[in-house]
Amino acid sequence: MLSESPASKRAAGQALININSSVGQLIGGALIGAVIASQGGTALGYQSAYFLIGCVAIVMTLLTLGLKKQQEQIETAKSNN
Description:
Blueprint: H1 10-38, H2 43-63, H3 70-80
Helix pairs in contact: 1-2
């Protein structure tokens, strides 16, 4: 993923990846906790949380279909080095 950016900007790219990952973990944990708490901490709350996680996973899987193919990524990496 970092090979998508020029060498002079890779440190900033890595920082953005780390920040987005951390924010995603915080928001994800808070969201799942809120879903569970909204159902009073019952089994239905946990079922709803798992259903939500499953839906997000399916959407993420579908989004991966739009990623570059391996050959395109190799060509980009070669042009940025």
